[in-house]
Backbone:
């Protein structure tokens, strides 16, 4: 039992740091690439089309081609989505155009899109070759499941609700997801993600740590707080709870 606990906590710490840094760096260098650097990255389109598609999905479709009129409204009307779909069909092969629709234009991930974004999870499995079978191996596997995957889980299942009005998100969900969204953490990530959309060079992490250590974190300005409240993205009592405070080492 002691071996299991030691492996779980030791690997858990390592895997959390690794996952948070990977999430932050993958966003900065792939998903949220700035337009200037996108030109260089474009050469990858021929070599690794899937990675290019992952970038386009998030960095172009999610950030700039959807939620254009309002942060809490993916499309203003059905025509807007139809026009985007038709444009994608002209611009990309059919399988990619369909993949963009399946991800709701970068709001979530398909399992294929998760392959490069989840690289640390796959690499951590190599530890199993070096560990003796038994409690330490079980602890390492459990640590990989619990500490390497939160950013993937939140990107795939929680992110779409972060673009909904707080009350709507709470009404549409139930069980564990509802508890996550209503928790101080759930409120904090919807705030930091709003800031990310105003300023895509900061607040990449849903699994906190690396952005703060890398100087890629900023708190919302008073105007952004006003905007979030007028959008009903958060409620006034959330502002009272978090503005000017620190949550998990991150200033809000
Ligand atoms: Zn982004
Ligand atoms: Zn978003």
Residues:
């Amino acid at each position: 039992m002691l071996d299991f606990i030691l492996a779980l906590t030791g690997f858990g710490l390592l895997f959390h740091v690794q996952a948070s840094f990977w999430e932050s760096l993958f966003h900065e260098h792939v998903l949220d690439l700035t337009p200037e650097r996108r030109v260089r990255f474009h050469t990858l389109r021929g070599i690794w089309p899937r990675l290019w598609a992952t970038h386009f999905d998030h960095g172009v479709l999610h950030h700039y081609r959807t939620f254009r009129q309002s942060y809490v409204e993916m499309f203003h009307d059905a025509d807007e989505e139809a026009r985007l779909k038709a444009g994608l069909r002209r611009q990309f092969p059919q399988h990619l155009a369909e993949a963009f629709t399946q991800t709701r234009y970068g709001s979530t991930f398909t399992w294929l899109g998760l392959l490069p974004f989840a690289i640390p999870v796959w690499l951590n499995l190599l530890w199993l070759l070096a560990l003796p079978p038994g409690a330490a191996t079980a602890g390492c596997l459990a640590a990989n499941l619990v500490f390497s995957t939160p950013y993937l889980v939140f990107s795939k299942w929680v992110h779409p609700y972060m673009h909904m009005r707080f009350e709507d998100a709470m009404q549409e969900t139930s069980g564990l997801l509802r508890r996550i969204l209503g928790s101080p953490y759930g409120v904090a990530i919807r705030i930091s993600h709003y800031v990310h959309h105003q300023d895509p060079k900061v607040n990449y992490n849903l699994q906190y740590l690396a952005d703060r250590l890398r100087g890629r974190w900023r708190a919302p300005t008073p105007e952004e707080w006003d905007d979030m409240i007028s959008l009903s993205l958060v409620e006034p009592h959330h502002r009272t709870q978090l503005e000017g405070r620190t949550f998990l080492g991150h200033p809000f």
